[in-house]
From TrEMBL:
PROSITE patterns: PIPLC_X_DOMAIN. The lineage of its organism: Eukaryota, Viridiplantae, Streptophyta, Embryophyta, Tracheophyta. One of its GO terms (molecular function) is phosphoric diester hydrolase activity. GO terms for biological process: lipid metabolic process. Residues 58-192 form the Phosphatidylinositol-specific phospholipase C X domain. It holds the Pfam family PI-PLC-X. InterPro entries: PI-PLC_domain, PLC-like_Pdiesterase_TIM-brl, PLipase_C_PInositol-sp_X_dom. It comes from Eragrostis curvula. This is Phosphatidylinositol-specific phospholipase C X domain-containing protein. Coiled coil: none annotated.
Length: 318
């Protein structure tokens, strides 16, 4: 027992030192980067503000959410704090400016996070369609995957096409160099990641797992995750040469060997350093590699940062 508590004390010291290290980096480096002062007049339509005929898909820094549809997961005050990564509905996230949605499903087509389930995936799709109906030129990446440890929903690919057919942008590498205007009226890139079912093929209306990649490390240590994100981003080709979306997650996750298991207090260790991360990306000469940037509990400032870099790229100042 004494050894266990000793390890926990050391763990807490390590977490504290890493939080302090990021705070020190922020004080020394600041949060300035190309486009950092930009604030969209209307976050719901921030892509439209930049000009659909000017913005190419590869130029966009896509603000994304991690475990997007967990706002009502589990039982309030009981199991919800252990699995909730967003407090806003998918529609509210999109209206705030989110442009990549991450949804995990299980066999009965319910959204889940680990063993906990929440509403049917139909709620997510209805939210996406509502948002599309209220906007004209906003493009959304909708990632839907079968959660680890669960079975694929039967014929789920057909279900997605039935629900989103008129909005779907077919799988095509040429999309990355097209402008948003050239994609219209289709506005959803739907990436379907089954565990065992056949993956979507080139030319089909759904995209396969190879088009949305990332290097996720499962840790609750903020500076460790921050440095890992920089390292793996540096190994990627520039966005102009890339034929896939590469995601960086500005998140840390609770660990079973640590007494702090609720999502929010853990992820807050890194959440406030999103702008610092972008600033360091540019300082290290990696500004042409950032593409999808995701977070827990997204807010307008996170969206503004991504929209600002996108604007700077479009204007040739990044």
């Amino acid at each position: 027992m004494g050894t266990f508590f000793s390890k926990q004390v050391e763990r807490r010291k390590l977490v504290t030192s890493q939080k302090q290290a990021l705070s020190t980096r922020l004080s020394a480096s600041g949060e300035t980067f190309p486009g950092s002062e930009h604030r969209p007049a209307d976050r719901m339509r921030w892509m439209s503000e930049l000009g659909p005929s000017r913005v190419r898909v590869h130029q966009v820094v896509w603000p994304g959410t991690h475990d997007s549809a967990t706002n009502k997961i589990g039982i309030p005050f009981v199991t919800r704090p252990f699995a909730q990564c967003q407090s806003l509905s998918v529609y509210e996230q999109l209206a705030t400016g989110t442009r990549l949605i991450d949804v995990r499903v299980q066999k009965e087509r319910r959204v889940c996070h680990g063993v906990l389930t929440t509403y049917p995936v139909d709620v997510v799709l209805d939210d996406v369609k509502r948002f599309l109906g209220e906007t004209e030129s906003e493009v959304v990446i909708l990632e839907i995957r079968t959660e680890f440890g669960h079975e694929d929903p039967p014929e789920f690919d057909k279900f997605l096409v039935e629900q989103l057919g008129e909005h779907l942008i077919p799988q095509d590498e040429a999309v990355f160099h097209k402008t948003i205007a050239e994609l219209l009226p289709r506005r959803v890139i739907c990436v379907w990641k089954p565990r065992k079912s056949p993956v979507p093929k080139p030319g089909e209306r759904l995209w396969n797992t190879g088009f949305l990649r990332g290097n996720w490390i499962d840790t609750d240590l903020p500076e460790t995750k921050f440095e890992s994100n920089l390292k793996f981003l540096g190994l990627q080709p520039p966005v102009a040469d890339r034929r896939f979306f590469y995601r960086v997650g500005n998140t840390v996750t609770p660990q079973a060997d640590n007494p702090v298991l609720c999502v929010k207090p853990v992820t807050l260790r890194i959440r406030g350093y999103a702008r610092l991360f972008i600033a360091e990306v540019f300082a290290k000469g990696l500004g042409d590699k950032l593409q999808v940037f995701s977070t827990d509990f997204i807010d307008g400032d996170f969206v503004d940062a991504c929209a600002g870099v996108t604007k700077a790229r479009v204007e040739g100042t990044a």
